[in-house]
Write a structure and sequence with these properties.
Chain lengths: 299, 778
């Protein structure tokens, strides 16, 4: 560990070069050629890490103003969001509000207005915090991530993207270009519930639920959680166990089953024991709320 | 009745603050200044060997080591008289006693060079000891002493068993009172260490004038005590130290003393002979500077079947951290809060302040009263429940009110209570909250349970008294009428940001019958003001405001004298003075002779033109009483029995502050008082790992404070003011700042009990702890 005297949050106590490429291709070239370079978007995670000297960099490549990464578009079967789109832009996007209400609900709970104006969706995913608020919704939406490098493009389902706390499948020279979210013809009830210490905080535990039901029986359920495992997790076991059940049953079973799919730890925000207890309630609450929303939409 | 008091006016510094033009310590720039950084100890308890400055000096930095500062012990807080001042601090230490204690400092022409120089310093440690973190273990004779000896006044005293200070007190026949009691309750309480989270991190800027005078801008609640301490530590005559007033971004006790950062900045400035700016980062401020005291209290109390309180016993063990700021006085005030809450017929007290290898504790809003009030108000609630008496009736029958002796600030500051709004606040508050409908927790079911609790408390207005006592408390004010009738108000008294000086302005305006806009607060310093002890103990309006009023009164007498000369009245007594709204000025006139009229401005002009001299007054004032401001808070909370999450639903906050000078600012204090109390109750704490490093909470990322979204909306937060008048206060006013937060923990804790049927004897009461208790109860 670095000495306490190495911290100085008035400064970024490191010396590095700063690049602002004109386009994505230049960004990729820089990333490939500049020794010790790292991508920066909103900087709301990275700058904190630099100040606390959790990481050292030699160069930053600023992608936050690249038009190629700043779009939200609606295609036939999917919505595509550029990685440098800010969280506040998602909150305010009419496409997102109409097609991705669950993502919007999660985005609204992220940080404060000031943070949301800087923070990007790409940064939120690439930081790979187990608490990243956009991850559980994107997990249940079955989002796909498009990664680009000078070598080409590849697509990775979000469930395969996170490999551990602060670890993702991005390789050297790769940038997350966009997030592609299939839009189903089905109507879902949705719910994002986030438990936190104060209303301006990272999650102690969070749950995203998408739900479809017919005649009071669950016909499709998708559940993902944040902050209760080394990565954001999709709770497939919970999903399987509640399809076909009546809502009351479903909420109860979901809350029982969720403990098998998470492995929370103690940290600054909460304890493992509490997270486990709270997750049970959170999942049940989220299932109920998604169901009630579904009824309101009127199917 | 009043022209200005009780009405709202734009704040004198409102525009500057809202527009960002206001200058705080951080904003002070002096040409050619160096930037300082502090080398903080990476060990909680160690002995320094060599400090190698060569690397830092090679970068062009000036380095200050323990050998460069006077080898003189001091106490950063000069509030007790010299004989009661315990000294165990050095500006820079060779024996760091807490993680982060300053060992050396650097100053360089840029912030980045300063940081690099800091990192280039090499400090060897001869020995690193296991830190002593538990105050109970600290008292064991086999534990390594944190200090072998310290100074009390000018004498050395031995420290035994790491006990920094001790106080015992007893009164009445406890044994027979206990025998008489039908119920006796004994409970243990633990209040954690909390960080002040004042908006502005501490800092200082210093420069030397060509004549050798040291000018200092710094975050402080007291410019004069800062001047005195700098003078004592560095041996500079007091008239060669000018501590300038600068806006303060909140205090809450964090700058009630002179911060080490100020003394280190002075050291760097004296060594480099250059101006120096030294400002703590937020993390340094919270991790390495000060936190609240940590209390371990045991309360025993009894009452008779008919509901009268018999005895009260308090064992009070305070973990003060590695150095004393007010380790001794806090024992006295804790006793004072305890004794003055209820009419105990017998009292027994044992207070101990204990050293540990942790960041030193200093006062936090309430100075022990929130914690003591919580413990007592919990036990009182439990006594009432045992006796099946309504807790409000029980309180009304037993509290210390009008006519009783009161000694909130400890045994040396006694006075009689003359104004008391408790009955009124209990009556009105209980009505609004719906106290009568309150149900027992036993009948509550379901997931979300609501509960209502009450907490009654008080705080003193200052620490004045009829006898001189062990505490220094006096203030001063200068009021000067300019040649056009505008007023300069010159005071050393600091406004923490709550609007204390706006109250003073109104008081002066009221006395002189001129609009508040004519009074300007002059930004002065210790060289141009008379002594004020400190803005603490909720004395800013009560004591400082009265000094301002007295200065204005003297000025008014002179104005009337001159007016009498001009108007040719037989004497000034024949004159009346009134506020004239149209002229926006005071008019002085002879009753019944309408042509004999003159404005205050005209009097000032004439006095100038005719060479009569300046109209001004300089007053030094000591209050002879320290009356209690009572607060009665009713709080409704909702507890989620499945997650342990607590929400505040409604607050009815009643305050007896005598005449309300600024209703909106006073309501603001009450909202803020509730917010800070709420955060102490359910929020965060500073805890430590085995090596003495604070666990987790090293930054605001993880030391969480409630936001406005976590607190009741305005509609659900009702503020009540009692209709009282304090005969000793300026226009009948008393203090508020601390009274506003003192009953909060108690009220919230009692509400949580009323919701869940579970009592928590430890703060913070986090959802984790609450859920655990609920599950254990199932
Ligand atoms: C006060 C505060 C509150 C916060 N609250 C929340 C909260 O409530 N919920 C939450 O989830 N987060 C929160 N955060 C964290 C942070 O704001 C988010 O994770 C944010 O989305 C990060 O985005 P960014 O653009 O700022 O990332 P940056 O800091 O710029 O980058 C983060 C990391 O991702 C990499 N990166 C960024 N973009 C790409 C890309 N396109 N391709 C490859 N790598 C990339 C960077 O190299 C870096 O390693 C908070 C942060 C702060 C400071």
């Amino acid at each position: 560990m670095l000495s306490i005297n190495a911290f100085n949050t008035y400064r970024i106590p490191q010396i590095f070069d700063y690049y602002r490429p004109r386009d994505l291709r230049e960004a990729l070239k820089l990333l490939e050629s500049v020794e010790g370079a790292k991508v920066v978007a909103g900087g709301t995670d990275l700058v904190v890490d630099l100040k606390y000297r959790r990481i050292e960099v030699r160069a930053l490549i600023d992608i936050s103003r690249l038009d190629e990464l700043r779009f939200i578009k609606l295609e036939d079967s999917y919505v595509e969001i550029g990685s440098a789109v800010t969280i506040q832009e998602i909150v305010e996007s009419s496409i997102a509000r109409e097609k991705l209400p669950l993502l919007v609900e999660a985005a609204e709970s992220l940080g404060s207005w000031q943070i949301r104006n800087l923070a990007t969706i790409g940064g939120n995913l690439c930081t790979a915090s187990p608490a990243a608020d956009t991850a559980p919704p994107l997990l249940v939406y079955d989002a796909e991530l498009e990664l680009v490098s000078l070598r080409g493009v590849r697509t990775v389902p979000i469930e395969k993207f996170f490999t551990g706390p602060k670890r993702v499948v991005l390789e050297r020279g790769e940038i997350l270009r966009s997030i592609r979210i299939p839009v189903s013809r089905n109507v879902f009830g949705w719910s994002y519930i986030k438990l936190r210490r104060t209303s301006f905080d990272v999650a102690k535990a969070s749950v995203a639920v998408l739900l479809d039901a017919r005649d009071g029986y669950i016909v499709d359920a998708r559940v993902a959680l944040g902050s209760v495992a080394p990565t954001p997790v999709r709770a497939r076991g919970v999903e399987r166990s509640i399809v076909g059940l009546k809502i009351e049953e479903a909420a109860r079973v979901a809350s029982e089953r969720v403990v098998n799919e998470i492995s929370p730890i103690d940290d600054a925000r909460s304890t493992a024991w509490y997270r486990l207890q709270a997750s049970k309630t959170l999942v049940s609450d989220a299932v109920w709320r998604a169901y009630e929303r579904l009824l309101k939409i009127g199917v | 009745m009043f022209n200005f008091i009780g009405r709202s006016f734009p704040r004198h510094d409102g525009f500057a603050k809202a527009s960002g033009l206001a200058e705080f310590t951080f904003d002070v720039e002096v040409p050619g200044m160096l930037y300082g950084r502090i080398f903080k100890s990476p060990h909680a308890f160690a002995r320094v060997g060599r400090v190698d400055a060569s690397g830092a000096e090679a970068l062009g930095a000036v380095v200050l080591t323990p050998d460069d500062v006077p080898d003189r012990l001091f106490n950063p807080r000069l509030i007790s008289i010299e004989e009661d001042t315990f000294k165990d601090w050095r500006v820079l230490t060779k024996v760091p006693r807490y993680f982060g204690e300053p060992i050396a400092a650097v100053a360089a022409p840029t912030e980045d060079t300063a940081q690099r120089a800091l990192e280039a310093l090499r400090v060897d440690f001869e020995e690193v000891y296991d830190p002593v973190l538990d105050p109970f273990k600290a008292m064991s004779p086999s534990t390594r002493p944190i200090h072998e000896r310290v100074m009390r006044g000018g004498r050395w005293i031995e420290v035994k068993n790491n006990i920094a200070a001790e106080l015992r007190y007893s009164e009445g026949d406890l044994d027979s009172e206990e025998k008489r009691s039908s119920v006796v309750i004994e409970r243990k309480f633990h209040a954690s260490r909390r960080y002040h989270t004042q908006l502005e991190p501490k800092g200082a800027v210093c420069k030397l004038e060509p004549d050798g005078t040291l000018v200092v801008w710094t975050t402080t609640q007291t410019i004069h005590n800062t001047k005195i301490l700098i003078s004592q530590v560095y041996g500079i005559p007091m008239n060669r130290v000018d501590v300038r007033k600068v806006l303060l971004g909140g205090g809450f006790g964090s700058s009630i003393h002179t911060n080490l950062v100020t003394l280190i900045a002075v050291g760097l400035c004296l060594k480099s002979r250059k101006p120096v700016k030294l400002v703590l980062t937020r993390e340094e401020d919270m991790v390495h500077d000060h936190v609240s005291f940590e209390f371990y209290m045991k309360v025993r109390a009894g009452a008779t079947r008919d509901g009268s309180i018999t005895f009260g016993e308090l064992d009070n063990l305070i973990d003060v951290g590695a150095h004393q700021i007010q380790a001794y006085p806090i024992l006295g005030t804790s006793l004072g809060w305890f004794v003055s809450l209820y009419k105990w017929r017998a009292v027994k007290y044992h207070g101990r302040s204990v050293y540990t290898n942790k960041v030193p504790s200093c006062a936090i809003r309430g100075y022990g009263a929130p914690e003591i009030t919580w413990a007592v108000e919990t036990v009182v609630d439990e006594l009432a429940e045992e006796l099946k008496i309504d807790p409000l009736e029980f309180r009304l029958a037993n509290y210390r009110g009008r006519g009783e002796i009161f000694w909130g600030q400890g045994p040396t500051v006694k006075s009689i209570i003359r104004s008391d709004g408790v009955p009124e606040l209990i009556a009105k508050g209980s009505e609004i909250i719906g106290w009568k409908r309150r149900e027992s927790p036993r009948v509550k079911t379901g997931r979300f349970r609501r509960g209502v609790g009450v907490g009654r408390g008080f705080h003193t207005s200052g620490a004045g008294g009829p006898l001189s006592g062990a505490i220094i408390d006096y203030t001063g004010a200068v009021v000067k009428v300019n040649e056009d009738g505008s007023i300069d108000y010159i005071t050393a008294l600091q406004d923490h940001g709550g609007g204390t000086l706006d109250a003073h302005i109104k008081i002066i305006a009221e006395e002189l019958k001129i609009p508040p806009g004519k009074v300007r607060v002059v930004w002065s310093g210790t060289s141009t003001t008379v002594y004020d002890v400190c803005t603490h103990a909720s004395r800013g309006v009560f004591t400082g405001g009265e000094a301002a009023r007295r200065a204005a009164l003297e000025v008014k007498k002179k104005v009337l004298e001159y007016a009498s000369r001009i108007l040719d009245s037989v004497s000034p007594e024949a004159l009346r003075i009134e506020y004239d709204r149209e002229l926006s000025d005071a008019v002085i006139f002879v009753e019944g002779a309408p042509e004999k009229r003159i404005t205050l401005s005209e009097v000032a002009r004439v006095a100038w033109q005719r060479n009569w001299g300046s109209i001004s007054a300089s007053v030094s004032y000591r209050a002879t009483v320290a009356p209690p401001s009572f607060t009665v808070y009713f709080v409704e909370v909702e507890v989620d029995m499945e997650t342990g999450v607590i929400k505040p639903i409604r607050v009815v906050a009643g305050a007896d502050i005598g005449t309300v000078i600024s209703p909106e600012l006073a309501a603001g204090q009450i909202h803020g008082g509730f917010a800070i109390g709420w955060s102490w109750t359910v929020g965060d704490e500073v805890s430590y790992l085995e090596n003495g490093v604070p666990a987790h909470r090293m930054s605001l990322t993880d030391y969480k404070l409630p936001t406005s979204m976590d607190l009741p909306s305005d509609e659900d937060f009702i503020v009540l003011f009692a209709s009282t008048y304090e005969p000793f206060g300026p226009f009948g006013a008393k203090g508020l700042g601390e009274a506003a937060s003192n009953p909060v923990i108690a009220a919230v804790a009692n509400a949580i009990y009323n919701a869940t049927g579970i009592r928590f004897y430890e703060i913070p009461m986090t959802p984790e702890k609450i859920l655990k208790a609920i599950k254990e109860g199932e």
